[in-house]
Amino acid sequence: MKFEHYIEKGGKRLRCGYTTGSCAALAAKAATLKLLTGEEAPRQSIVTPAGIEVTADILHGGTSSGLARCGVRKDAGDDWDVTDGLVIYATVRPKQQQGVVIDGGEGVGRVTLPGLEQPVGVAAINKGPRQMIAQAVEEVCRQQGYQGGLVVEVSAPGGEEIATKTFNPRLGIQGGISILGSSGIVEPQSVQALIDTIEVEMKMLAAQGHRELLITPGNYGTSFLGEHPPGRELPQLKCSNFIGDTLDFALSLGYRRLYLVGHLGKFVKLAGGIMNTHSAYADGRMEIITAHAALAGGGTSLAKQLMEASTTDQCVELLESAHLRQPVMDSILQRGVFHLNHRTQGQITCELLLFTNQWGPLAWTAGAAELFGLEVR
After folding, report:
1. Arch. (CATH architecture) of 6-186
2. Which of 53, 5, 6 has the alpha carbon at shortest distance from 29?
3. What is the pLDDT of residue 5?
């Protein structure tokens, strides 16, 4: 049964999906009904925390030895999601004590490192999905007059292999996927999901005692660090375009020093106080470089060429020809650090290194120079 809920994004009508947490709650509800009444409902419905009703087809397993097992196939809508199409099962059995106990089975990961939402040793089923599962099961129990307790085991056959394509191994979640989704709904191309992942990783590292981080937006930064390894081991974090959110998390989690390493094409925006570096959010690259070139003594002709440049590498080439490359890069660096310090309220030491693939390291703070063995300027 296709989930028909849509949002408008970027001028496009996109179909939403439902989370693994919603799947688990739907499956648990169907399995509870099956256990208590023997009824095999062809589909089941829940109201998600987002207030949106989800109805899904139920895949029925066997009922034996006091167990009932049902599954729901994950529907991610138009979102790109590695768990799309995965069947999430819930196996329900009675227990003597009242209450609902929720655990993970095959394909559901377990937490092995501190700092995540669930403690070490517990199945990676987040608080939101646990509440959804318990509410769905308790609803059926009330309807059927059942006074006893239940154990719900959530499983995801194939989840262990799929988890290798997620952040789970880096987060210390071993053996499978996480059961996620605070709202119960998957919004296509969800920015918030990525920001939440960054926060979770930073919380985990903080819980391990780390107070310094080496941060880079993405693949360019990772490649740079592979060619220019730091002089000592530091945990590394990919922040994508979300510099501001990453700084906010660092401040709230008690980090003391951040080393930000980024391509000039992204990090030049920091000099303009732009803390989301996605081009759809803000650009201003050429305007910022041109302004700093003017501060360094560049004339109108150079300013016009910089404004018309198509890449930041081309800008660096123009600055090099005008013998202004280093003063402009240093000026951009200093202004970038100013905005980083402003965002972190001066409570975190922010080191910054700017590079391009063509020119290599262009400008860096003293702390970055020490970490990467560069000349202190």
Report:
1. 2-Layer Sandwich (3.30)
2. 53
3. 85
